[in-house]
Amino acid sequence: MSVRTYLEQWLHRQWMKRGLFSWLLRPLSGLSALYIYHKRQQPRHPLPRQRPPIIVVGNIIIGGAGKTPVVLALCRYLQQHGWTPGIVSRGYGVTIAGAARVGQGQLDAIRYGDEPSLLAEQSGAPIAVHPKRVQAVQALMQYYPEVNVIIADDGLQHQALIRDIEIVVQDQRGVGNGLVLPAGPLREPPERLTQADWLITQTVANSPLPYTPAPKMADRSVHMQLVPAVFEQLSTGQRIEAPAWLKQHRTQRGAALAAIGQPQRFFQMLKNSDLQLDQELAFPDHGQIPASIFSQLKADFLLITAKDAVKCSQKTDSRVWVVHVEPQFTPASWLDAVGQQLQHIANTTPH
């Protein structure tokens, strides 16, 4: 485990309690709260009245709450129901000083970022990347005028961006110790959750749901669990459905590697599938798993996330398999309700 990964995990442990660490930093969190309040008073940036509806998917807690599977599930649902969605994203770790970068399909993770590349590849939807989401929206509308609904990945705190529907994603950490950065893990105070249209909470199997504020509208809280759906051999592209792959490899010894916000959740999902993992290796979020590490591992199979696969340089080791997951929602009907919201918005928007 790298020093950075160790420090990240230590910070998250501190943020789950109100100990000495958070007490010492509370004055700075007070200043953060004032800045957040001031920022929320700023006006939205105007966009054309005939713009597509905009759905913002975000979180108030830092570090891998589970936005990506929600964005993909939304895209697939909308595509299946006659919509043409597009995505805008910041492109974490990528420097974009000029125009937004726009593309579709297979995109270079170095130019677009790992999450936008994954979203573009798995959804097939066009995507625009820029730290200023308004510029990304404008570019998406310019280059893909057929897009009739826009999903903003991680745009909750981007105050300038107009939004019609807000979906907040959290995980088993809930709101941690309830404090904003740096004394706690929150980008905004816990009561921000009451203003969301939907609150989706991701947990692993058999884990209790955290107690947090809920949206003011009734029946807008959704539970999500991720399960393995397909295993893809990175060297050949061979794809095997999860039940068959798990049956073939259940008696073998494996290792799992992840450079994501909450790697332990990925590891636990695999162990819940009755896989035997001798090693669980975590790397910094948005980082790249070192190519040399694969040859050092003596496991029968090596499992990585789809997000890590888009920037993985180890393409020849036949033991490396990408775990493609699918979300299971309770209630599953929440996507239908979002579709109804969108249809109402589209019917009341001037053309």
Automatic annotation (TrEMBL):
Enzyme category, top tier: transferase
Q: Where are the transmembrane segments?
A: 20-37
Q: Which UniProt keywords apply?
A: ATP-binding, Kinase, Lipid A biosynthesis, Lipid biosynthesis, Lipid metabolism, Membrane, Nucleotide-binding, Transferase, Transmembrane, Transmembrane helix
GO cellular component labels:
plasma membrane
A GO molecular function for this record? lipid-A 4'-kinase activity
Pathway recorded for this protein: Glycolipid biosynthesis; lipid IV(A) biosynthesis; lipid IV(A) from (3R)-3-hydroxytetradecanoyl-[acyl-carrier-protein] and UDP-N-acetyl-alpha-D-glucosamine: step 6/6
- Binding site residues for ATP: 61-68
EC no. given is: 2.7.1.130
Biological process annotations from GO: lipid A biosynthetic process; lipopolysaccharide core region biosynthetic process
Record's catalysed reaction(s): a lipid A disaccharide + ATP = a lipid IVA + ADP + H(+)
- State what this protein does: Transfers the gamma-phosphate of ATP to the 4'-position of a tetraacyldisaccharide 1-phosphate intermediate (termed DS-1-P) to form tetraacyldisaccharide 1,4'-bis-phosphate (lipid IVA).
Q: Which family does it belong to?
A: Belongs to the LpxK family.
List the protein's name. Tetraacyldisaccharide 4'-kinase
Q: Which gene encodes it?
A: lpxK
